[in-house]
Structure formats: structure tokens, C-alpha cells
Amino acid sequence: MKRLLSNGRRRAVVATAASALVLAGAALVVPSLAQAATTLGAAAAQSGRYFGTAIAGGRLNDSTYSTIAGREFNMITAENEMKPDATEPNQNQFNFSAGDQIYNWATQRGLKVRGHTLAWHAQQPPWMERMSGSALRSAMINHINGVMAHYKGKLAAWDVVNEAFNEDGSRRQSNLQGTGNDWIEVAFRTARAADPSTKLCYNDYNIENWSYGKTQGVYRMIQDFKSRGVPIDCVGLQTHFTGGSSLPSNFQTTLSSFAALGVDVALTEVDVTNASTTQYAGLTQACLNVPRCIGITVWGVRDSDSWRSNENPLLFDGGGNKKAAYTSVLNALNAAGPGPTGTPTATPTTPPPSGGANRIVGSQSGRCIDVPNSSQTNGTRVQLYDCHGQTNQQWTYTASKQLTVYGGSRCLDANGSGNGAAVQIYSCNGGANQQWNVNSNGTISGVQSGRCLDVWGTGNGQQVQLYDCHGQANQQFRLVAN
Questions:
Q1: Which residue among 72, 79, 88, 163 is the active-site one?
Q2: Which of 212, 154, 159 is nearest to 188 (CA)?
Q3: What mean pLDDT, rounded, does the chain reach?
Q4: Where's the GH10 domain (predicted)?
């Protein structure tokens, strides 16, 4: 998270159980060479995840650096180029040239991009550092709106708020905190309004150990946000393991506990002292074991590119050679195969009688799957909304496994088959992406993808997507006759 080589200050580290994650009975069985993917991104994609890296625009002219980055990874985070000091160096004067350089480099290679970061106590431009109170609150809102407008619809996710907690789980006393305890909520609500299409994440370090105070503080905030409908889609665990802070034995518990709140989790800034093979394999396997752990990002390409370069913490050495830790990660990703480890199989059940109109009601939210504004435009993404029984909430399950609306003129349609694919309406065409299994565990899964209808939250306007079936409440729906 630090500006590369800008200072020598180290992050606080947490003394944890030094033992690496124990995976009882989890012997890795690696597919044959004919089946195994040969790059990190391709291997992660087999289970619907990503494996990414942080990119510094000033290094893209280094051919070794750019070749590795373009070959190995399928998600890119700008190391510094999308932070507040880079994007709004003078108040109300935005500069996206550095961020766009990285975005264009990535997307030209078919790579997705995470936005990092919108609101943070560090790396603020000098004009923002001098502000406080209502003026700073307004400046934060304006910054979020300005940056997200520029990248609207382009990014996979945004780290909306970064590092807002102390080690004991209390709020960090930053100038942003000084604007009022609701500043994080305001940032997320502003971000959702600015770009409803991107996932909104909270990102922090030292939240890997489930029993640690900081972890619990962040957990309580997410729990509160979800209970009140504050828009938040994911939690980023930076996963900087340095010195006394190593992979905790309860790391998977942390990931699954956050995920159980109805958010995705991601490892966003991974680096490990001396690139411990055991720790890299362990953190990778923990992510693979949690269905809503959507991806891993290492914070740099080669050891020489790291903000901790003297600790050799990455998967490639300074010469661009793969290290033992690289092989351990690749093997773990390949062993996972299609679908996250431990994902329950959705079992089709006897469908409801065809011909009758039904509401599709979320078990967690009590809200209905709804076509916004009664639109009949192809590609309109469906959402959760209070049930009212009007025609944009009346669905018929047909003998050919379609879910039709508006008397059969439009079908529920998956715009893709991967995790996060949008669920929308489209003219009925009989394709497999418009066929659905209504399953005995309450899930509705796509015939083409095998993935389930999934929502990120419970409030009005929460969009419906495809996600690996795990049977939790946010994937359970019931068809109720109108």
C-alpha cells in the first residue's frame, strides 16, 4: 500500500500463531501436465477466480516486467496511480493520465482492473491534508464522484475506503474520521450512486487473524453495514506477512466469517517475507476453500519491484525467474480445478407447475427479483426490490426451464457464465444461458454455467449475478404464486 520506496516506515505487525495453516487431509493432487494451466491467472480462472498483481506505470517500459505481468496475471491494480494525490493533485482539477496508462495497458491485453483507492488517510494531496470538518467531507464526496465518473462501468471493483482502523479495532483518528463517525458509510453510499456496476470494497492490513482486535473491529463494521443496507460488496485483506506476522492458523476462519456476512473476500496486496513456500501455498489454499474468496493479488511483480524488496517477498526474483513459492501457488490453483473447493452441488428438484405467474422471493431479503422501472429493454439487469406483484415481478417457469416475464416476451438471461456475470432480461431464444434449474436446496442455477443466482446484499436495488453455488441464504429463493 505504500508508495514504492517513499519511506522506510514498516506496518505494524501482529504476533500470531507461527504455524502455517493446517489443511487436514488436504493432499494436493495436481492435474496432468496436459490439463494444468501454466500461468497463475489461467490457473485461478479455472475455479472462477483471478490472480492479479500491482503495476507501477513507470516500470511498464521494462520488458521483463511487462512480459511477466501480461503473461501471468488476469487482474491488475494500479500501485499508486489511482490514489487521491495522483488523481486530484489540485482541488477540483482531476488528472487521470497515470491511471489511464495502466488501465489501457491492462485492458488492451484482456486483463481486468481493480480501482485503488478512493478515501484514505495517507497519500492525500497537500490541499486535502490541510482540510477538516465539513469542507473535507464535501471534498471527499466530490473526489469519489469525480474519479468514479471517469472510470464508470470500466473497473471490476474499487477499494472505496482503505485502512480506517487501529490495531485494537477502534477507528483511526485521521482527518477523515474527524469529519464524523459516519464518513465510511457516506463514502460507500456515494460510491454506489456514482457507479452501481462496480463492486465496492473495504481494504485493510492486519485483519487476517480472526482473534485479533482489528479484525473484529472491521467485522463489526461490515456486519452493521449489511444489517442496515449500506452498500458494500467485498472486504480486501491485504495479507502482508512480514517479520512476526505470518499466516495465522485461523486465516480460513477469517475469510469464511466475513463471507458469511454476504460479502466477497479477496487477498489484495499479498507479499510474504522470503516468499515462504508454505505460507504462499497456505494462503492460496485458504482462499480456494472459501467459495466467496474471489481472487488473490500480489503486491508487485518481482522482488526488485516490491516496497519490501530487501525481504524478497514475491513470486519472481529480481531477474524475473519463478521462485519455489510460484510453483506452490500454481500447483494449488491447478489442484482446485473447476469450481471452488467444497462448493456444494445444486440438485435439481421437481419444478413448480408451468403456466402460472410467480414471484421469486429472496429468502435472506424477503424482496423480489424485479425488472427495474418495468423496462422491457434487452440487457436490463434484474435486481431485488420490495414485492408488489406487478408485471415486472411476475415470472413463469416453463417446461423448457425458462423463467419468463411480461407474459413470455422476455426471459431471465445470464450475460456470461463466470462468477459475477450479470443476470438480465432478454428476448427468449431457447439458449442454455436462459435455462434454469430450481433446486432442492432453494437455489436457482443456470443450466449453462452451473452457477447460482446470487445477491450482494438485501436492500432495494441490489443487483443479481451468477456465483458459484454455496447454498447460503443470499442464494436461496422461493417461487411464490401471485
A1: 163
A2: 159
A3: 87
A4: 34-332
